[in-house]
Write a structure and sequence with these properties.
Elements: H1 2-25, E1 32-36, E2 39-43, E3 47-53, H2 57-60, E4 68-71, E5 77-81, E6 86-90, E7 96-100, E8 112-114, E9 120-124, E10 129-133, E11 139-143, E12 162-164, E13 170-174, E14 177-181, E15 187-191, H3 200-208, H4 211-216, E16 225-230, E17 236-240, E18 247-250, E19 280-285, E20 291-295, E21 300-304, E22 310-315, E23 327-332, E24 338-342, E25 347-353, H5 355-368, H6 372-385, H7 390-402, H8 406-415, H9 419-436, H10 438-476
């Protein structure tokens, strides 16, 4: 009887737990947000979590300490399942298809890249090599540390992040820069080298400090790259471990095309802890260059236009649907759906763009293509949903500015709190007013000058007459 009661109670608790978890997992997500002057501004939902992929069934099992996610051109999903020593392949719906292990020899893979023809490149991290296999997991070739004097100071080849360019070059994150290797396993150079930022303290110590102070001084080092993505445009979208310029878009010469500045926000759990600077750990981009950067501490995916304008931040830290315990990787499919890999929970969260977000992306694309009238219509759709959308108001200001409607542009710039845009439009509007009413202004000035001259002349005459009367009267006395 006692065992029966215990079993009944256990079943009851399990049912209650399952119900509570189900309610929690599908709870209404928080509003997405944007940052304005460091403040959180809530915005309508831009990305909604519609699926969580975890258990892959009897054949696929679960992910253990997974490190990377890659989505190919047909929207198949590949997971670098590190502790399981495999690359797990899923279809677009998240159904498990197969593993890639190079016949069971892959060890601790931390990155995966799939070419358009379906070949898989695996960073066989613990074996210090890159493995190239075909669709059937048949080995094609291996890449090891290239034989080059320029790489003499590199002690290992434990590759953690790879990507292949359209030219067939293999790009590898190597500390402060990217290493390039060609199809013949030959070293082709570095690109995107980070520079050491100027330090006034170090300069003063080096200039005026004693030998003891100079010896104690730690030499500054350039920031390292955490991850990168080669976009459809051939540019390198990268995230660096720094407090400024954490997000970068690099061309073939290594020049940063992304606006310089600090991105994300400092995270402060409570007043008793130190605020932590944002650390972006992965990045991807859509076909239009929209940037999706995954931040470690907040667990949010920060979304920016290729010009650095923030669109939205979504996700977060938590154990419910749409939030993560330890997010490590992000990628995007052909439909613009975002996938975030959570290493700790062994889950992949799928986010679909809402109609609101699609309107923003379409409006921005139309504007970039010079289709201003069509873009304006789409931005108006956005403002109908969220009249306080700074991006939309600023974009409307930009369109009206290009159409030389400066006064109207000033109104939108004001609503967007776009001081630079407002100043620019005001200067044009002032010049336009001066040019339009120049004749009247000159006439008014001339009339004013003539009027003042006439008044002064009359006053002079009256003053002279009063003086004559005064002195004539004095003479009579």
């Amino acid at each position: 009887m006692k065992k029966f009661l215990l079993r009944t109670m256990a079943v009851f608790i399990s049912i209650i737990t399952a119900v509570l978890f189900s309610v929690t997992a599908y709870a209404t997500p928080d509003m997405n947000l944007v940052l304005e002057d460091g403040e959180h501004i809530k915005t309508p939902i831009c990305y909604s979590c519609t699926q969580v992929i975890s258990d892959l069934g009897d054949n696929g099992g679960t992910f253990i300490d997974a490190s990377d996610i890659f989505i190919d051109k047909t929207d198949n999903i590949y997971i670098a399942d590190t502790k399981n020593n495999r690359i797990a392949m899923l279809d677009a719906s998240g159904k498990y298809l197969r593993d890639y292990t190079n016949n069971g020899t892959v060890s601790g893979p931390k990155s995966v890249f799939v070419t358009d023809n379906g070949d898989i490149f695996i960073s066989d991290t613990l074996n210090e090599q890159i493995v190239h296999v075909d669709k059937n997991d048949k080995l094609i070739e291996k890449f090891v540390k290239p034989d080059s004097e320029l790489l003499a100071n590199i002690s290992d080849f434990a590759v953690e992040k790879i990507a292949i360019s359209e030219q067939g070059l293999i790009y590898i994150v190597h500390a402060q820069q990217f290493m390039m290797i060609d199809a013949n396993n030959e070293f082709k150079g570095f690109v995107g080298a980070n520079k050491i930022s100027f330090s006034l303290k170090e300069f003063l110590i080096r200039t005026f400090g004693s030998e003891i102070q100079k010896n104690k001084m730690v030499t500054g080092q350039a920031s390292t790259y955490n991850s990168f993505h080669i976009g459809d445009d051939g540019l390198i979208y990268a995230v660096a471990n720094d407090t400024k310029d954490q997000i970068r878009i690099l061309n073939v010469d290594g020049d940063n095309l992304f606006p310089s500045g600090s991105y994300g926000e400092r995270i402060e759990e409570d007043k008793s802890t130190w605020a932590r600077d944002p650390i972006f750990i992965d990045v991807c981009a859509d076909k239009n260059g929209t940037v999706f950067a995954l931040e470690k501490h907040s667990g949010r995916v920060y979304t920016y236009t290729h010009k650095g304008d923030m669109i939205v931040a979504f996700g977060g830290i938590g154990s419910i649907k749409g939030k993560f315990m330890n997010p490590v990787a992000v990628d995007i499919n052909s439909k613009g759906e975002i996938y975030v890999l959570d290493s700790s929970s062994g889950t992949v969260h799928k986010f679909e763009p809402t109609s609101y977000m699609n309107s923003i992306l379409e409006a921005y694309t139309l504007f970039e293509d010079g289709k201003y009238d069509a873009s304006m219509q789409k931005w108006n759709d956005v403002l109908d949903i969220n009249i306080n959308c700074s991006l939309a108001n600023s974009a409307m200001g930009n369109i009206l500015y290009k159409q030389e409607e400066y006064k109207q542009a000033m109104g939108y710039y004001k609503d967007a709190n776009d001081k630079a845009g407002y100043s620019k439009a005001f200067t044009k509007y002032r010049h336009e007013c001066l040019r339009k009413y120049f004749g009247w202004i000159i006439a008014a000035i001339a009339a004013l000058v003539i009027g003042i001259y006439a008044i002064l002349k009359i006053m002079f005459k009256k003053g002279k007459k009063l003086l004559d009367i005064f002195y004539s009267g004095g003479a009579k006395r």
